[in-house]
Write the structure tokens for this entry.
Amino acid sequence: MTVSFVLLALLTLSAAVAAMSMPRLIHCALALAVAFTGLGGIFLNLGAEFVGLAQLLVYVGAVAILIVFAILLTRGSEVSMRPGARSAISGTVIALAVFAVLAHAVLTSGVSRMATTAVTPSNRVQEIGVTLLQQYVLPLEVIALLLTAALIGAVILAWREKSPAAQEGAETR
Amino acid sequence: MNGYFAMATGLAERVDQIFVTFDHWAVTNTPEPLRWLVSILLIVVPILAVFPGLFALTTVLERKGLGRIQNRYGPNRVGPYGLLQPIADAVKSLTKEDVVPRTADGVVHYLAPLVIVSTAFLAYAVLPVGRNMIAVHLDAGLLFFFAIGSATELAVFMAGWSSRNKYSLLGAMRAIAQMISYEVPLILSSIAVIMIAGTLSPEKIVLEQAQYTGIFPHWYVFTPWGFAGFLLFMTAAAAETNRSPFDLPEGESEIIAGYFVEYSGFKFALFFLAEYLEIFAVSGLGITLFLGGWSAPLSFLAVIPSWIWFFAKLLVMIGVFIWVRGTMPRLRMDQLMNFAWKFMLPMALIDMVCAGVWRFLPGGALWVVLRWLICAAIIVVPYVALARGLEQGRKIEQRVYRYAEEG
Amino acid sequence: MNPLSACLIVAAFLFCVGLAGALSRSSAILVLAGIELMLGAANLNFIAFWRYGALAAVSPFHSLTGIVFVLFSIGVAAAEAAVGLALILAIYRYTKSCNVTQITELKG
């Protein structure tokens, strides 16, 4: 455990807490982007170069932007977006209980006494590519299909249908 | 005679590696506890000094170039030939009042220019500016470049949203839509290079191209797929950096100045700086991927140091950007999106197929010509078909003005 | 405490932050963001076990399993975010709200 890991973990966790607790939705989305960046930083810190950069590219470059766009396209619902008192308390209590269980499990299991390898396992980009295209070629094709289906599905879902009411509104305007 | 030749090449190599040698000397000659600091400073300070310097030079070049294209003198009052103009500009932007709108979101408004400038600088970490001259040796350097570049979109959104101004939000939305759309062909056209070079490391991609057949280099731009890829890459790069003719996010006649309309003084200068840094970075990447990076265009010209070649190529690219800006009209938003999704994306995919065919066709004596012809056909036929298809059903006729009467 | 369990604790906390957000926030978009955080925490676990686990030393054949799993997980999360946000947009267009407590049309 190094200083950089501790700093990155603190950044990630505080940004995540901010993302889940700030009153304004856009601030939440920006804090979420910071949390994703910190997570990518932790991956890099652990030596997983390709995955860390892919995390940055996908989450900061695509998912955070998607969330921001969704927030802007659903304006008007922003007023009632205070964390509801009752659900906030119960949600936090449940989450803390889950954390206590998980932390207890991690600290008492054999994992915390396990000897850890000191050197980073090799993960050159070329090796990852060969593994993906030989050993895991079927899952790769399946996920390509999944992403295509998701793309088409998202476009169809978000397609603005020309409803009669909307057309009337356009004419009166 | 031979001795002189050997001495000359030895000297050339010395000059070529002068910065690397100095770096090594400085690090080994500092006491152990300070070494990490010195080695970091020796990487960061040159990047922080050279590229903003290039930015200052480019502002003058651009204004003078645009002036010449538009039949006027550019700046010519400050210093000889107006060369000291950037200093005057810097003093002006530093002494101007920093106006923040009363309703602006203070923290986000303050952070946006910082985020955009720091991400722009980070991209230089993986750009090889000379032989052995790269800041960070990353195995997945290209992925780093694109990952850092995608953070710019969020910074643009921060600037546009936090200003609480319709025009800046519109500009930011335009900018983000455009950057996301053009990021796809940008990355896809560089995938062709990755497929051929078999690596994501910019250094190794340059080394692959820095070989010579006779006196001619193996630059990827001299292959059918590389040529098409280079054109696609640079077009997408111009759109990605909001450069003319894709400068809709800043269209001053439509939305004043886009997402940074509410920034003044030094913060505005930071946006300006970041925009040019991105242009340099993405041009540098284009040079690295297609134009052989720091390698010399002809084998006997390799006596000139590699870093001079890199910056010479960069200056040529900047000149092309200025030329395009001076001569091309701005696109409309729907034209921009149609161009990205209906033309650039299919062409980039076809380019990838072409690179694959190029890779797996045999390399015998007869095949050299045949390979060329096949790959050129793979590019040209879809290009013609696509252009024809997009043009069909579109008649060019006199424009009908609905709101403005013709005087 | 070794580095592996430190990573696991951080991941557990991140998971619980996401869980708390998904349970307590009323905006559907933030619920989705909480789920993304939980997925990120799971990815951190995979990376931690890949980095510190004993599997890499035992068999080089499996040494990249953690990495590959996280890559697939990132891909699935991206698809999930796209479809989820499109659903939220469609619901918003229909009900003019994306508050999860107000979308109760299917309640019996």
Remarks:
- Chain A touches chain C through 88 residues (CB under 8 Å).
- The longest helix of chain A spans residues 49-73.
- Confidence is low (pLDDT under 50) at residues 166-173 of chain A.
- Residues 85-116 of chain A form one domain.
